[in-house]
């Protein structure tokens, strides 16, 4: 299953794009989380970014898990209840360690939002030149 993301400048021009694929237990949520993770990897320490996605499930997974961990909920229980915990934990750890200010924004899929449409295009082209980030479940 293909994933993709783009970074747009202030003129809504694509300045960077990336594609990859999710091979183990592919799902649309896992693909969106993989795209969010790989986008966060390229951000510089202390950077602010809006991440636009058409996956409310991906946003909820990150926000719910982060809230539970921040509010002192049992960490083991929180991670055991988290779907796609390997990707979600990597996202949360990167946000914290790189001191990023991330805003997750939900948009309707296939609704003409430029960044989202470009990301979909990049994801569909993953068979041409896939980039691999291998995250093993522990």
TrEMBL record:
Catalytic activity entry: Endonucleolytic cleavage to 5'-phosphomonoester
The EC number(s) this enzyme carries: 3.1.26.4
InterPro entries referenced in this protein's UniProt entry, alphabetically: RNase_H, RNaseH_domain
GO biological process per UniProt: DNA replication, removal of RNA primer
Start and end residues of each RNase H type-1 domain: 1-128
Protein name per UniProt: ribonuclease H
Transmembrane segments: none
Keywords (A to Z) from UniProt: Endonuclease, Hydrolase, Metal-binding, Nuclease
Gene Ontology MF terms: metal ion binding; nucleic acid binding; RNA-DNA hybrid ribonuclease activity
Presence of the UniProt keyword rRNA-binding in the record: no
